[in-house]
Amino acid sequence: MTGGRFVRLAETDRREMTIVVDGKPVRALEGDTLLVAILGALGHLRTSEFGDGRRAGFCLMGACQDCWIWSATGDRLRACSTSIVDGMQISTQQPEGAWGHFEL
Fold first, then answer.
1. Which uninterrupted H or E stretch holds 78?
2. N or C: which end of the chain has fewer CB within 10 A?
3. Are the C-beta atoms of 70 and 76 separated by less than 8 Å?
4. CA-CA distances (angstroms) from residue 41 to 51, 97, 99?
5. 69 in Cβ contact with 29 (< 8 Å)
6. 35: number of Cβ within 10 Å
7. Measured distance CA(82)–CA(97) in Å, rounded
8. How far is C-alpha 5 from the chain's CA centre?
9. What CATH number belongs to 16-91?
10. What is the pLDDT of residues 62-89, one digit of tens each?
11. What's this model's pTM, rounded to 2 decimal places?
């Protein structure tokens, strides 16, 4: 995985998996969170819905609310605490009409 914000230095022998982010395949390793997989490949997590630019998460532990992304079905996910599943499909942009359609 290259070109991202994170550089993997260890634990490179875990099983490789692929997720789909905004229609593009992203390689990750078993046990990675969505945040690690996406930042490792793309360099940013999402674009702020408030117009202040690209976001990469902040606290990395589920407290700051800066890493919300969406599943293909529109479920809201915290990228920093959601483990990848091989083949999962992710959107970094809020689906139309998704306000209020999420679980805390």
1. strand 76-78
2. C
3. yes
4. 23, 28, 28
5. no
6. 23
7. 23
8. 13
9. 3.10.20.440
10. 778 888 899 999 999 999 999 999 999 9
11. 0.78
